[in-house]
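Issue 218. Parser rejects a valid record. Input:
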Amino acid sequence: MKSMSRTFGLYIGLAAMLGIGLILLLVLGPRWLVTPPEETAAAPATAADARKIRARLFYVDEQGTGLTSVEREVLYGEGTVEQAKRIIEAQLGAAPESLASAIPAGTRLRTVFFTKAGDMYVDLSAELRQNHPGGTTNEILTVYAIVSALTTNLPAITSVQILIDGKEVDSLAGHLDLRRPIEQDLKWITN
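Output the parser choked on:
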């Protein structure tokens, strides 16, 4: 009798487990069996598809003595800091035909940061100094191309301090004091 009651208990236990399994299968099964729809990731935006703004960038004029402004498309950046990055990246790019870039070749943007007082700090790579041709006019045009690009396009920026590899510098080529933020000076812009 004991063996019959054990067998009967075993059958009851198996039937209960089977019943619970069937209930779980009926309730949860459809969730397991349905293939979730593939998430369609947004295709990465290409430069051609990305949102852009029009900005004034500054290049050495044909006489080599001043800066001329050219309106160009620049990638959009959310907020002052991000937009400043996009403007500087565009300023570091190639100059339009018949004009020359005031920024030495190979110069890269490391970072920018902005103070509540309206000062923008622009940290550029060592190529800014290493590849600079020197001379008073060239140094002034380099600095004011950067300062003008930011202060003209972003009214929140009142002055710009240039850093090289994260450090303050006295000057680029020995002629212009860069130990403090520089305000825009329109006398260097010819148009």
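Fixed in the parser; the record now loads. DSSP finds four helices and seven strands in the chain.
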